[in-house]
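anyone seen this seq b4? input:
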Amino acid sequence: MTRLVRILATLVFPPYAFGLVLFLGAGLGLAGRPYADPDALWNIVHRLCVPNEARFGDPAPCRRVDLRGGDRNGYAVLKDPFRTTQFLLIPTARITGIESPALVAENAPNYFASAWRSHTYIDRAVRRVLPRNDIALAVNSASARTQNQLHIHIDCVRADVRAALQRADPVPRRWSPVAVLLAGHRYLAMRVDAAQLDGVNPFRLLAEGVPGAQQDMGHHTLVAIGAIFSNAHPGFIILEGRVDPAGGDTGSGEELLDHTCRIAKLS
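predicted toks r here
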């Protein structure tokens, strides 16, 4: 049945199936080409995934569509087939990116919490359960993204980034500079003691905790990396980076992720 639904999806909505190809092409480094569609993600979710879930009970080409809170609070999870382990969480509401006030509004959906719960798709991709400190979530700045729809990257963390953060331990519970460069760039970090992110919204942590960020959110990037603190206490390291044209930093927190998940072989 799943295969049939996927075939029907391409027959019923061929323009958006083509949009999926364009978006995935952007993931292969084609984003600078003039035919890259910045609305491809939005169209894929709303012209394919949501209708297919409603009509057939199958969200193809997405892996999941969750509309329990309605369109305004829902999300879809899409696999990038050109990357070994990358998944994207995409709101079903029209939210351009990290700069959207909707992300820090009262009663805003906690998309980071949903993204973290979706990291089990990576376990299935590598056919083993990875430790939480192998997993990272990232939202790029406005200048570092290719799509005009918010999407949270869900993938493995780079092994060198995890090692650098371990050397920088202990991470404080309020925003503080990371003592070492991560992927060659400067980040602020803070520790969150929680097994899940349901009670912690990283967008709010950024807007309310980093001076000037709320007025300039589009120039920031956010990353949440699973952590195992002392006494095996689960938590997260939340990282914030800022666009710095002079330093060659576009604000791409995705740079801290490893789309080949080499760390799975080291854990």
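The domain at 88-265 is CATH 3.30.428.30 (HIT family, subunit A). Strands lie at 64-66, 75-79, 87-91, 135-139, 152-157, 176-177, 188-192, 220-229, 233-242, 257-258. kinda curious what u guys think
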